[in-house]
Specification:
The structure is a single chain. With 147 residues, this protein is mainly α. Helix 1 packs across helix 4, helix 2 runs antiparallel to helix 3 and helix 2 packs antiparallel against helix 5. The chain has six helices and no strands. It has one domain. The chain starts with a helix and ends in a 30-residue tail after the last helix.
Length: 147
């Protein structure tokens, strides 16, 4: 049985997979997490890449009615996979090293804060203004009367 800190770390990993899928952060997280799971075994790393891609595809394919259920399921799948890997390591030293690697991976994959993204808040705009922040936004700007 894993220590509580390792269980929390595994849950953070599962959550990170679900949050990153379909975003700009996905490629980096996906490849680093596959390497972490592979532990130097190229075949295992490829298998994990395929599993991660299937998860991303399932999340992308979910419609509004099933999105929450699919997200919850995928998060549980990856939490369980991470827990299993940590449990299967031979000794406490290996487990601690793997946990440290995962913590670092998750820290680096975490979304940047608003200040790191160059976002601003608390501004006042007077007159015609177009302002957009975030990822995957769509903005249609028209000034003047509608045609």
């Amino acid at each position: 049985m894993l220590a509580e800190a390792m269980t929390v770390l595994a849950a953070a990993g599962g959550s990170a997979v679900v949050q990153a899928a379909g975003t700009d952060a996905w490629e980096g997280l996906r490849s680093r997490l596959a390497q972490w799971f592979g532990r130097g075994d190229a075949a295992r790393e490829r298998a994990e890449l395929e599993r991660l891609e299937r998860s991303a595809a399932a999340l992308e394919a979910a419609d509004a009615g099933t999105a929450d259920r699919v997200r919850t399921r995928q998060e549980a799948v990856w939490t369980t996979r991470i827990e299993a890997l940590l449990e299967d390591l031979d000794d406490d030293e290996q487990r601690a090293q793997a946990a440290d690697q995962l913590r670092q991976l998750l820290k680096e994959a975490a979304p940047a804060s608003a200040s790191e993204l160059g976002l601003v808040s608390g501004n006042t705009f007077n007159g015609p203004t177009a302002f957009q922040a975030g990822n995957h936004n769509r903005q249609d700007v028209r000034f003047g009367p509608r045609p």
